[in-house]
Design goal:
With 553 residues, the chain is α+β, with helices and mostly antiparallel strands. The chain has 13 helices and 24 strands. Helix content is 25%, strand content 24%. The strands form six sheets. Strands 2-3-1-18-19-20-21-22 form an eight-stranded mixed beta sheet, sandwiched between helices. Pfam families: Phage_sheath_1 (PF04984). This is Tail sheath protein subtilisin-like domain-containing protein.
């Protein structure tokens, strides 16, 4: 605007300042969790992960802990638990009736044949229902012991459901299906007169009044809905509502547990699991859990879809367990394709998967060939993908994981011979082995295409940086000064990469570490297009050293 009164007008033009680069080392993990947000959440430490997704997630998602132990900056965990089933174990009393069932805390096959429960010190069959018993849960090296349990009085110490569900990280106790009712009738009103009063909601579930003021609970349900709500009244005042409750005696007890958990800290109303008054203690026995299943391929695909919303993830880990089948091929291929698609959108990432347990070497090499890509890493032996992902995430983006130590590993499922390691490396599988001097190390940091992981990560870092800088110039004037400014900012970014050691000149010094050209033809100019040509030379790890020693006389 032109001045009318004599004076000075000053315009301020701010220099374009590129945003700080996203921190590398953010791992996206998809797999089974005990609990947590269905759409996923971020965790920066192992404790934060356990607080968000439950202690049992350490068993159902064993890759998570080594990711943090090996130094990952952050993890984005997206549950893929919707179609998975929990392993379970039924306990009978002396009359032959199923008293209760124990369910693994988290779904999946992790508990099948590995998680066991033993009832000890139970009294003889002619003892009353108040007789006490002990329960021991064992999973690999972990053991939980619960003593002096009883199934007769929910208000007395040692009540089975209160003790197990409140203290065990391995299992949850639920009344047997025949002792557990389904949804109550719509409009049912349950009145409470005093604090501590217990009233039955359905068979197997009591509601406990925690307020000193009388009140009631009303069952509400919309037409055509299988779920129901509990409306909680203190006096005549509606104070709260627990919505979308599902009770199904023939299905897994998720709804039952969710109801009890939802009311665990409620100031007015609580819920507790109960058995029929004539129930007897379980018989002495020891048995293992079974019938746990893994999620469907569709559940993993849904989890990957959620990860597309996380633009800063640069590693994606799929937690898949159970015997080898075509499911591994489908899930790992989906992870590879997800990473390739996200990389085309400048949200570059690399996928990782572990070798299936017990898979013969020939089939493992075939699996690697099926997954051939710069965007996928297949680790071996089984169970090490989390440790490898965490170690890669901890490294600077231009550092190679070759011959780097991995933590959180105490033993290997398979101790490969040198000839077997050669076979794996030829098939472009990333093996972990034990070295007497270094400990457990990554033998060669390569993707299933044979490309060094560090080279791909340098490329990815450059892509993200170039996009972040170029985004700042969109909508600005398309003139020579603007194009020069863009070129200068890109040059600054690439110079810093060269100083970091991520990109290097040719070994003979004749070719620079990078080249940048920013231009616009007349036709491009008319359409508002500016083109950027960049060439970079990523640093490569020295994987092989050939030495010649002259022995002189």
């Amino acid at each position: 605007m032109a001045l009318i009164i004599p004076g000075v007008q000053v315009n301020v033009v701010k220099e374009v300042v590129p945003p700080p680069a996203n921190p590398s080392g953010i791992v996206g993990i998809i797999g089974i969790t005990d609990q947590g947000p269905a759409k996923g959440a971020r965790a920066g430490t192992w404790k934060e992960f356990v607080d968000l997704f439950g202690a049992a997630s350490a068993y159902s998602l064993p890759e998570a802990r080594p990711v943090f132990e090996n130094g990952a900056f952050e993890a984005v965990i997206v549950p893929a638990s919707t179609s998975a089933q929990r392993a379970q174990l039924a306990f009978q009393d002396s009359a032959g009736d199923v008293v209760f069932r124990l369910y693994a805390r988290a779904a999946g096959t992790w508990a099948n044949g590995a998680l066991s429960a033993e009832v000890t010190n139970a009294r003889s069959a002619d003892q009353p229902a108040e007789a006490l018993f002990d329960l021991v849960l064992r999973y690999k090296g972990d053991e939980e012991v619960f003593r002096n349990l009883q199934v007769a009085d929910p208000a007395a110490p040692g009540y089975l459901f209160s003790v197990i569900n409140g203290n065990s990280t391995l299992a949850a106790a639920i009344p047997a299906p025949e002792n557990l009712g389904t949804a109550p009738a719509t409009g049912l009103e349950i009145a409470f007169d005093s604090e501590g009063q217990r009233q039955s909601l359905v068979a197997g579930i009591n509601l406990v009044w925690r307020s000193s003021t009388a009140g009631k609970v009303v069952v509400a349900r919309e037409d055509g809905q299988t779920t129901f709500d509990l409306q909680i009244y203190s006096g005549d005042q509606l104070v709260d509502q627990v919505a979308e409750i599902v009770l199904d005696a023939d299905a897994e007890p998720d709804g039952t547990q969710a109801l009890v958990a939802a009311l665990a800290d409620h100031p007015v109303l609580g819920a507790e699991l109960v058995l029929p008054s004539n129930s007897l203690p379980p018989l002495v026995r020891s048995a293992v859990f079974s019938e746990g299943t893994e999620p469907s391929v569709a559940a993993y695909l849904d989890a990957l879809e959620e990860l597309t919303k996380e633009s800063d993830v640069d590693l994606v880990l799929a937690s898949v367990h159970g015997p080898y089948s075509s499911v591994y091929d489908q899930i790992y291929s989906a992870v590879r394709d997800h990473c390739a698609a996200m990389s085309r959108d400048a949200k570059n990432r690399i996928g990782l998967g572990a070798a299936p347990a017990g898979l013969p070497l020939e089939e493992l090499t075939t699996l690697a060939q099926k997954l051939n890509s710069d965007r996928f890493v297949l680790t071996a032996p089984a169970g090490l993908a989390g440790a490898v992902a965490g170690r890669i995430a901890q490294l600077a983006y231009f550092q190679s994981p070759t011959y780097k130590k991995v933590g959180g590993v105490s033993s290997l499922e398979t101790d490969y011979l040198p000839s077997q390691l050669n076979t794996l490396l030829k098939a472009h599988v990333l093996p972990v082995d034990f070295d007497r001097q270094l400990g457990f190390i990554i033998i060669h940091g390569i993707a299933t295409s044979g490309e060094q992981i560090s080279v791909t990560r340098v490329q990815d870092y450059a892509v993200r940086g170039v996009k972040a800088i170029s985004d700042l110039f969109i909508g600005r004037l398309n003139n020579e000064l603007a194009r020069l400014a863009l070129r200068q900012k890109l040059t600054e970014f690439l110079l810093q990469m060269e100083k970091d050691g991520a990109i290097v000149p040719s070994t003979d010094g004749t070719d620079p570490a990078f080249k940048v050209n920013v231009y616009s033809s007349q036709a491009d100019f008319a359409q508002g297009i500016v083109r950027v040509d960049i060439a970079i030379r990523p640093v490569r790890a020295i994987d092989y050293v050939y030495a010649t020693i002259l022995v002189q006389v």
